[in-house]
Design a protein that fits this description.
Layout: E1 2-6, E2 13-29, E3 33-42, H1 47-56, E4 65-76, E5 82-91, E6 102-106, E7 110-122, E8 127-136, E9 139-151, H2 152-159, E10 187-189
Parallel strand pairs: 7-10
Antiparallel strand pairs: 1-2, 2-3, 2-9, 3-4, 4-7, 5-6, 5-8, 8-9
Amino acid sequence: MISTTMDGKTGKTETKVFSGFYNAADWIEEGNLGLEVWIDHKKDVIPLLNSLQQATGTLGPSDMRADGLITLYFVNLQQKERRIQNISVRTLRNEPGSIGTQSAVGRPRAVNRAVLGTVPISNYAQDVSLTIKFDVDGVPYEKVMKVKRLTQTEMDVFSTPGAKAPYPWFTAPYYPFDPPMSQPHLIATIVQPK
């Protein structure tokens, strides 16, 4: 997505090229447990047909809608295991999606991933507001987060080798990790308990 805005005072225009990814992060328990939220923008488009519809002005209401694949990362900085249960996500508009409730065990000193499913989002959104509910070791939490669509320039921070993401756990006294949790083999995928 490309967005061009003009400053009314200076007359200068600014063009932003947005990626297909949204991101937000916050502490659940400061210094102990963090939460990263990622949304992958999913929109099925037939390139030639979409270009023709844009040119003729015949895009329908379905052009306004897309799906957002929700992935949560629970960053456990503690040496002990954390039980993360009853994970659920809703948009602030309470739109139904294909998201079920999950439970998991958060490994110590690890990043634990939960791929939850999709929610409907606006195809042209620059942010998505979510309500995320879960229990940690039996204590209920509710986080309302505005998940911002990243520009291509911002996305480069996440894909550049050695770059640190702008999360609080990448600052002192939490960083560097011991062991460093940024290594791919330390990312555990959350699976449903049996």
